[in-house]
Write a structure and sequence with these properties.
Elements (H helix, E strand, L loop, with lengths): L1 H8 L10 E4 L3 E7 L3 H6 L15 E6 L5 E10 L2 E7 L3 H9 L8 E4 L5 E7 L2 H4 L11 E3 L3 E5 L7 E7 L2 H12 L3 E2 L2 H10 L36 H9 L5 E8 L10 E4 L9 E8 L5 E8 H5 L3 E3 L7 E4 L8
Parallel strand pairs: 1-11
Antiparallel strand pairs: 1-7, 2-5, 2-6, 3-4, 4-5, 7-10, 8-9, 9-10, 12-15, 12-17, 13-14, 13-16, 14-15
Length: 328
């Protein structure tokens, strides 16, 4: 992988919204393998692992028994188990949690982040969309002996892909093929595309902060309400069937020079201390300096446009439509 690491170190890029390729090694990977890997994940994750195979990936989450999400990830079935694709800073915390539940199961857990070179691309280029290693539809996975490629949720006319390569020189070759038709971007361009697509991420600052419905995971097919028990399942089911959703995730645009961080507080306008109104999930600037932000908040207060950032009271929050129908 040294060949890839030396190559990627020389290929930074600009902040872009469309038709770009970037290195995505800032994402982390957990490998779950062993004879009991499937049953183990079925008993731990929010989604039904039985609904995927090596041609379909799945959005899922892992929660505490009190229903608070420790992490969110995309799950890919591979020949020797499953890969959980997540925020890199969450790999070790998730591994530590999952290790506690192995008990006597035949399951092995490993940080697989260094096994793969990772490339992200966002494009509507017809020639690239016909590339032999890129899946043809959202949710699909294409696998060879050395490449795993996923098509993710689209964003307007742009298709979004993550490509993982076991071979460093093969990753360089693929990068060069993509870069021949796309501009080179920085990784934050990929984060921006995730935010604009309304896809939540959990960071150490927000781990155990939200029940999965609050981050719109049900609207994103990130949970199964028909499968058996998993940590937090009772809380999730009660909120789905017996309660009324009072908080959900919103997408907003902010004109600010200071990027909000995951975990930053939102309060009712005029408040000088945290009041439980809302929390920043993720935020990133675009090339024009406009901040795009996902936040979870009390629905009534967010829809009344009565919120502000506690740390930036003069920054206006302008809600914009998510690219999918939100819950509630």
């Amino acid at each position: 992988m040294n060949h890839w690491q030396q190559f990627e170190a020389r290929h930074g890029g600009a902040r872009l919204r469309e038709n770009f390729v970037c290195d995505a090694d800032a994402l982390g990977l957990i490998l779950v393998s062993g004879a009991d890997a499937r049953d183990f994940l079925q008993n731990q994750l929010s989604n039904d692992i039985g609904l995927i195979d090596e041609t379909r990936w799945q959005l899922s989450s892992y929660s505490t028994p009190k229903g608070r999400m420790v992490g969110i990830f995309r799950v890919i079935q591979v020949s020797n188990g499953y890969l959980l694709l997540t925020v890199k800073s969450m790999v070790q915390p998730l591994l530590e949690r999952l290790f506690h539940y192995i008990v006597h199961s035949q399951v092995q857990l490993a940080d697989a982040s260094d096994y793969f070179a990772r490339i992200a691309l966002v494009t509507d280029n017809p020639r690239l969309l016909e590339h032999e290693l890129l899946p043809r539809e959202p949710g699909a996975v294409l696998q060879t002996d050395s490449v795993i490629a996923m098509q993710l949720e689209p964003l307007a006319a742009q298709r979004r892909f993550l490509v993982m390569c076991l071979n460093g020189s093969g990753a360089v070759e693929l990068w060069q093929q993509f870069a021949a038709r796309l501009d080179t971007a920085d990784f934050n361009s990929w984060r921006l595309s995730e935010i604009r697509a309304g896809i939540p991420a959990i960071y150490p600052e927000t781990s155990e902060e939200f029940v999965l419905q609050m981050t719109n995971l049900a609207a994103l097919d990130g949970v199964s309400f028909k499968k058996g028990c998993y940590p937090g399942q009772e809380i999730v089911a009660r909120m789905q069937y017996l309660g009324k959703l009072k908080r959900r995730m919103f997408l907003a645009e902010l004109e600010t020079g200071q990027l909000p961080r995951p975990g930053d507080e939102l309060v009712v306008a005029g408040k000088l201390e945290a009041d439980g109104s809302g929390t920043v999930v993720d935020a990133e600037f675009d090339a024009d300096g406009l901040c795009h932000c996902l936040y979870v908040a009390q629905i009534a207060r967010a829809e009344a446009d009565s919120l502000q950032l506690l740390a930036q009271p003069d920054t206006g929050i302008r809600n914009v439509a998510l690219p999918y129908s939100p819950p509630g």
